[in-house]
Amino acid sequence: MEKSLARYIWKNTRLQQLWILAVVAASMVPYFLSFDLPKQIVNGPIQGDGFEGPGATQTFMHIAYNIPLIGHVEFFQGVQLNRFQMLMALSLVFLALVVLNGLFKFYINTYKGRLGERMLRRIRFELIDRVLRFPPAHFKRVKSAEIATMIKDEVEPMGGFTGDAFVSPALLGGQAITALAFIIVQNFWLGMIAAAIVGVQAVVIPRMRKRLLDLGRQRQLTARELSGRVGEIVDGIGTIHGNDTSNLERADIASRLGRIFSIRYDLYQWKFLVKFINNFLAQVTPFLFYAIGGYLALQGRLDIGQLVAVISAYKDLPGPLKELIDWDQMRQDVQVKYQQVYEQFNVEPLIDSRIQELAIAPVGALTSALVVTNLTLSDDSGARLVDHVSVEIKPNETVAIVGPNGSGAEAFAEALGRMIWPDSGRITIDGRDLLDLPESITGRRISYASADTFFFHGSLASNLLYGLKHAPMTDPVYDEKEALEYKWHSAEAVKAGNPTLDLNSDWVDYQAAGASGPEDLLKAIRPVLDAVLISQDILDLALRSNVNTDVHVAVSDHVVALRASLRDRLRDEGLDGIVVPFDFDAYNAQATVGENLLFGTMKRPLMTNRRLAAHPYFQQLFRETGLSTDLYAMGLEIAENAVELFHDLPPDHPFFQQLTFMTADDIPTYQALLQKLQSRRFEDATPEERSAIIRLSFAYIEPRHRFGLLTNELMDKIVSARKQFHAHIPADLAELIERYDAERFTPSASLMDNVLFGRIAYQQADASDRIRAIMGELFDALDLYDDVLSIGLEFDVGSGGKRLTMVQRQKLNLARALLKRSDYFIFNRPLSALDQRVQDQITRNIIEDLHKEGERPAIIWVLSNARLAEMFDRILLFDRGGLAEAGNYPELSEKNGMFKELLS
C-alpha cells in the first residue's frame, strides 16, 4: 500500500485531477470579473461617470486586445448605450456571471463527488482484497469487528477528501487570492489590512487545530476498540452467561463510554473555541474596512464604487479562507486515519494475488503424490507443534492419522489443508510447493474439513454449495433496460478498480459435483447428505417449513394424494388412531381450543393472535355465542389447577414442559391475579384481566393437560361458534385466515400440518417419529423426496450457522467438503461433537462412498477412534510433534508399540 494518502490519490486519479484543475483555473476568470462589475455599475450608470451630458452614451462590450507579434486586434467594436441601457446591460452581465459561477461550482462539486465515491469504492475493495490475502496466522491477532469498522466507517472520509485533495486548495486558494488581489488593486492599504488578517488566520488557526487532530485520533481509536469489544460480547455471550460476568462487561463498557464522552467533550470545547476566534478575526476586517475605508472615502482618496467593490470582494474572502483552513484540518485528519489503516492492513507476507486469480476452465486432477519434507510447525507462542516430519502420501491412498490430543496430528492436517504455514520444510505436489499452487487448484482438488465450522448467513443450500462457487459459469439473461444498467455498473467498476464479475451469474460448478445442471443437482447432493446422516434433519426442517407454492409446485399439487396415502398406510399398519383428522363438523380433541375455534391458519405476520382477539368481529362473536364467559370460567380453572400443582416446583422442572399455556415465570402473576379475582365473576374483571384468563383456555388440550374441563356441551358450542365465524367472516379477515380444506393445500401452514391434516394423538408413544418415518417413505414412493429435501435446503441457517445445532453444523461442513469430489480429502477430527458410534458410522459411509469403482481419491483422516484405522491403507501415529510409528493396521496392531496401547 501507498504510505501517503496524497500519493495514493494522485496515483489513481491524476488524469481526473488534472482535468478538474483546468476547469478550476477557467472558473477564476468569471469569478474575478464578478468582483469588478459592481464597481463599474456604481461608478458608471448609477453615479454618472462618463454620462455627464444629456444623451451621452458609452461603448458596451468592446472586445480588443494587443497580441504580441500581431499587434492590436479588435474582435468586436461594441455597441453604444445610454445611461439606463448601460445600467440594464451591466446588471444582466452581472446576473450572467452569477449563473456562470454557479454552474462552474455545480460541475466542480458534482465531479468531485463522483471522483470521491469512486475512490472510496476503490479503497474499500482493496482493503477487503488484502483481508482475503492475509496469512492465516494474522486472523488470530485481529478482531473482525475492528476490521469491519475500519473498512465501513473509518475510510468513509477518505472518499470525500479525494475530490477535495487537489481541487479544493486550487479552487479555494484561487478564490481567496483573486479576492485579495482585487482588494489590493482597489486600495493598497485596505489590501494590506485584509492580507494581515488572512495571515493571522492562516497561522494561528491551524496551530490551534493540532489539539483537535489529537483528540480526533483518540476518539477514533476508542470508538474502534468499543466496536471490537461489542463484537467480543456478541461472540462470547454464552461464556458471559455461564460465568455470571455480565456486570463485569457492563462495567467495562461503561468505562469505555466514559472515556469516549471525555474525549468528545474536550473535542467540542476546543472546536468551538477555535471557531469563536476564527469568526472574531473574520468580523474584525469589515469593521476596519468601514472605519478606514470610510475615512479614505471622506477624504476623496477612495471613491464609493471602490469601497463597495472592496467590501463586496471581502465578503467572498472569509468563506474560501475558512473552507481552506477546514480543508487543511480534514487533510491532516484523513491522513491520520489513512496511516492507521495502512498500519493495520500493511501485513507481510500477503498471499500473492496470482494465487487467487479467477479460473473459469475446469482444473485437471492431481495425479502426483503429496510429499511432506522436514516439516516443522509452531504456534503463536513459538512452541513446536510438529517437529521435522517427512512423509509421502500417494494418490488414491487412504491414510489414518492417530495420536493423543496435542500430539501434532491436528496441526499436521492443518498444514496439509493450508490452514497454517510451515516454519520450515515443504509440502509439495509434483515438485511444486503447496503454498505456491493457485487456489483454483487447491480449493477444488483438495478438500479440508475440521471440527471448526463457519457458515455464511443464508440458506442451507447456499452454504452446502459454497465449495462449488469458484467462478461465474453462465451469463445471466438481461432485458434491454437491465443490460444497459449492467453495462453502466461495469464501466463504473472498471473506473474504481473493481472487478466486473457479475454476482447474478450462476456460479455453481455443477460438473464438479457430478451433475449436469440445476435440474439433477439434488440427485448428486442426496448421496452426500445420506453419507453424513443429515438427510433426516433436513427432511424435518422441510416438514416444519412453509412451502412456496410458486417454486415447489409438485409438492403442493400432491398434498391431497399424500394425505390419502398416509391414511391408507396408517390403516394398513393398524395405526388409525395415531392421527385425528380435522373435521369441520366435529371438535378435534388433539388440537387446542383456539385451533378448534379458528379451524384454519393465520397469514403471519399480517395477522396474529393479539390482532385477531382485538378484531371487532371476533369480539362480537364471543359476546353473541356466550363463549367469553365460558372460556373465562375455563381459564380460571386452568389457572387454579396450574398454580396449585406447580407453584412449589423449581422453574427448570420437567413438568413445565407439558404446560403450553403458562411458563414458570407466569405462575406468580396468575397467583396474584387469582387472589384479586376471588369473586370469579366475568363482569368484575378488567378487559386486560379477562384477556389474560381467556388466553389460557385457547392453548388447552384435554388429552395433554387432563384437567377435565372440556365438556361435550362446551365442545359443541365451540364447533357452533366456528361455523358462525366462517359463515359471516368479513372480507378483511377472510384474506388473512385460511380455512382448513381437505381437498386443498394450505400455504400458511407447515408441510407437516398439510400432510397430516390433523393432529397427532398425545397418547401414542413415539408417534411423531413413526409419522416422520412413514412420511419419508411416502415421499420416496411418490418421487417427491428430492422436492421435499429442497424445501429443507431453503432453511435460513442464521449468522454463522447458529440456527443449526453443533452436530448439524459439523455434518454440513463435512458434506460441503465431500460435494467437491476432490483428489485429496483431509479430515481433521471433523465430527468431534458426535458420539463415537455415529462418528464410526459416518466414517465408514464416507470411505465406502468415496472409493467406488473408478473413483478412489486420497483420504487423510485424523481419527478420534484408533480402531477405525483398520479401514485405511496406512497409519501415521503422531506423538509429541513427531512421527512415532507408521505402517498398516496388521503391522502396528501386532507390534508392542504406542498404537497397540491406543487400541486398548
Morphology: extended
Q: Structural class, from secondary structure content?
A: alpha+beta
**What proportion of the residues form beta strands (DSSP E)?**
5-15%
Strands, count:
20
Which architecture of one domain does the CATH hierarchy give at level 2?
3-Layer(aba) Sandwich
Q: In terms of quaternary structure, what is this? A: single chain
Residue-averaged pLDDT, rounded?
A: 83
The biggest sheet amounts to: 6 strands, mixed
The top level CATH class name of one domain:
Alpha Beta
Radius of gyration: 40 Å
Tell me the span between the first and last alpha carbons: 57 Å
Number of helices: 34
Low-pLDDT regions: none
Notes on the structure:
The protein has 904 residues and is α+β, with helices and mostly antiparallel strands. Among the domains are: 368-470 and 799-901, 3-Layer(aba) Sandwich (Rossmann fold); 582-738, no CATH class. It contains 34 helices and 20 strands. It has a six-stranded mixed sheet with strand order 10-17-18-7-19-20, with helices on both faces. Helix 3 (144-154) runs antiparallel to helix 6 and helix 8 packs antiparallel against helix 9. The two termini are 57 Å apart. The model has no long low-confidence stretch (mean pLDDT 83).
